[in-house]
Each structure stands twice: as C-alpha cells, then as structure tokens.
C-alpha cells in the first residue's frame, strides 16, 4: 500500500469510504499501487490499468484502456468526446458499490493489458510554426537544436503555446519561459505526466 494514496483518500473526505472500498478491490487483484497525475493508479508490469478519483459530484475508476471492456452492465462512460481509450465507472452519493461487479471489470482490464490491447496514439496534426518561435530559433542555435530534437507532438505544443497568445507581450513572455525548457529537451506539459 502506497502512503501517498492514504493521503489522497484523506484529502477526498467526501468520498473516503467509497475510495477505500475501491482501493481494496484494486489491491485484491495483485496490481501495483502508485500515484500519477496526483491520484492513485494501479499497474501491471509497469503499464497503467486503472486509476481512482474523487470529484465534487462523483467518484470512480478510470480504465486507461476501457474502450476494450465488454461493459455488459453499461456502467462505463466516456468522460470527454476527445478521449479515445479511457472510460470511467462513476459512483454518486448513495450508490452501492458491488465489489463483485467492479472486480470483474478490473480483472477484464488486467487481462486486456496482458494481451497488449491499446489504442494507437494519433499522430500530431500539421501546424504552422509560430513566427516568434522561428525568429528566436534563427538567432539561437541551441534553441534550434533543442527544438529539432523534440518529438513532433512537443514541437506542436510549443508552437501553439506561442501562437495562441492574443497579445504580443504575452507571446514574448511565453517565449522567454519556454526557451530553457526546449533547450533542456523538456515537453511543455511533461511536469504533469509523471506526478
């Protein structure tokens, strides 16, 4: 048991009993318990299978590759239209959590992970390189080399980060902020990926 998960559950006091029950089910399957993105995540062979979360109006389980679950009881929801693989099983105030049902879904998710079922990540779309970023790279070889060493997706994130700023002073501020990150080979959102 990971003590950081204890802290997470204590912090989510509105859902602590439900999260404790769900955690117990997760641990009964032999998955490894860790914390990523600030919440409990359960893995098999280092691969994410499930996560727990408590929100204002519900708590529940994230199935990282839930799209492959049979969902015979229609318990899963797609939290966002843009989410291709992940599915949630939500519980609201007063709902009964059936340990047998939850465990059946979790065991199926573990088997799917062991089979290697994964949704292929979409390739980053085309983007217009920010004029500010291009101008900065033209006069800074280290910045240019760092940018070229990034993955296409990270390049797009940085370029869009500059382009989406409405005011010129914001573009300049953002450019100053990201220069050392690009040179260091760090993605714009990397700090959130391994919390």
Q: Which short descriptors sum up this protein?
A:
195 residues, alpha+beta, Aspartate Aminotransferase, domain 1, 2 domains, 8 helices, 16% strand
Question: Mind explaining what this structure looks like?
Answer:
The protein is an alpha+beta fold. The protein has 2 domains: 113 residues, Aspartate Aminotransferase, domain 1; 63 residues, no CATH class. Helices cover 45% and strands 16% of the residues. The chain contains 8 helices and 6 strands, in the order ααββββββαααααα. A 6-stranded antiparallel sheet has the order 1-2-3-4-6-5. A hairpin with a 2-residue loop joins β1 and β2. α2 packs across α3, α5 packs across α7 and α6 runs antiparallel to α7. The radius of gyration is 21 Å and the shape is elongated. The model has no long low-confidence stretch (mean pLDDT 92).
Tally of individual domains: 2
Helix content: 40-55%
| CATH architecture descriptor text of the largest domain | Alpha-Beta Complex
Using the CA coordinates, give the radius of gyration. Answer: 21 Å
CATH class of the largest domain: Alpha Beta
Distance between the termini: 17 Å
Which stretches are poorly predicted, pLDDT < 50 over at least 5 residues?
none
SSE topology string: HHEEEEEEHHHHHH
**CATH topology value of the largest domain:** Aspartate Aminotransferase, domain 1
């Amino acid at each position: 048991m990971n003590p950081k998960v204890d802290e997470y559950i204590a912090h989510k006091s509105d859902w602590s009993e439900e999260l404790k029950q769900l955690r117990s089910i997760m641990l009964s399957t032999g998955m490894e318990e860790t914390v990523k993105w600030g919440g409990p995540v359960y893995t098999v062979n280092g691969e994410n299978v499930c996560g727990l979360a408590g929100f204002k109006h519900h708590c529940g389980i994230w199935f990282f590759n839930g799209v492959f679950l049979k969902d015979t009881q229609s318990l899963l929801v797609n939290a966002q239209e843009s989410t291709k693989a992940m599915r949630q099983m939500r519980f609201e105030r007063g709902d009964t959590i059936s340990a047998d049902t939850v465990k059946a879904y979790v065991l199926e998710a573990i088997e799917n992970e062991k089979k290697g079922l994964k949704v292929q990540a979409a390739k980053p779309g085309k983007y217009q390189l920010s004029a500010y970023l291009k101008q900065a790279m033209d006069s800074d070889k280290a910045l240019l080399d760092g940018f070229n060493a990034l993955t296409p997706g990270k390049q797009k994130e940085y370029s869009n980060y500059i382009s989406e700023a409405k005011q010129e002073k914001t573009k300049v501020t953002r450019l100053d902020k990201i220069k050392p990150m690009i040179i260091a080979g760090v993605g714009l959102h990397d700090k959130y990926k391994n919390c």
